[in-house]
Amino acid sequence: MIRMLRRFWDILRRPSVHLSFGFLTIGAFVMGILFWGGFNTIMEATNTEKFCTGCHEMRDNVFAELKNTIHYSNRSGVRAICSDCHVPHNWTDKMARKMAASKEVWGKIFGTIDTREKFEAHRLQLANNEWRRLKANNSLECRNCHQFESMDFTKQSKRAVDAHSTLLARGEKTCIDCHKGIAHSLPDMAGVK
Q1: Same-domain check for residues 61 and 118
Q2: Cα gap 149→145, rounded to integer Å
Q3: Count of domains for the chain
Q4: Is the CB of residue 23 less than 8 Å from the CB of residue 52?
Q5: How many angstroms separate the Cα of 146 from the Cα of each of 85, 139, 140, 152, 186?
Q6: With the C-alpha atoms ordered 169, 179, 150, 85, is the resulting torsion angle positive or negative?
Q7: Is residue 51 in a domain?
Q8: pLDDT (tens digit, 9 = 90+) per residue, 82-126?
Q9: Where residue 17 falls among pLDDT bands split at 50, 70, 90?
Q10: In angstroms, rounded to a whole number, what is the distance separating the alpha carbons of residues 92 and 50?
Q11: Is 36 a residue whose pLDDT tops 90?
Q12: DSSP string of 52-105?
């Protein structure tokens, strides 16, 4: 065992051509930590309200609407920010969402929704994209804060109790099926089934 450790140590300290294998390994480890730390810092910076509302398209449209809802201001002081509802919390789903959202950068570059009129013209498409995503992941972002097991049915309306205790409990519906427009204005739904 000691002979094997001594041999391993000799390999680590023996120079490759100019640098030892040990130095290269430790250097790669340190660079990996720096890269991962920088990458994670950037990912978290893009999840802030300041980042999300940095462009006037979001600040003047959907963020202005959010300010008038219970998700922004309420008696308990709990406040949802953009990433709470639009970015999954676990790492793999978050990375997939970030990659999918990168196409939104193209919309910014090409001015797809740079005026209120353009935004309203695309609102139904944008809303449908989010509703489809939330339906596909069983309203994961809603469930990060709102847990079925913690619902107090005695404080809900009869209609809500009926829906939550049957349709939601059996998995027949998910949050977004009934709560479209909960944090933003609904698009013009004329002609939509």
Answers
A1: yes
A2: 11
A3: 2
A4: no
A5: 11, 10, 10, 11, 21
A6: positive
A7: no
A8: 999 999 888 888 898 888 888 888 888 888 888 889 999 999 999
A9: low
A10: 23
A11: yes
A12: HTSSHHIIIIIHHHHTTSTTTS-TT-----HHHHHS-SSHHHHHHHHHHHTHHH
Find out whether 98 and 87 touch, Cβ atoms under 8 Å. Answer: yes
| Inter-CA distances, 149 with 78, 99, 145, 168, 169, Å | 19, 32, 11, 11, 10
pLDDT number for residue 161: 87
Count of residues making up the chain: 193
Co-location of 3 and 75 in the same domain: no
In a domain, 50, yes or no: no
DSSP 8-state secondary structure symbol assigned to residue 170: T
Please report the pLDDT score of residue 34 as a whole number. Answer: 95
Report helix, strand or coil for 168. helix
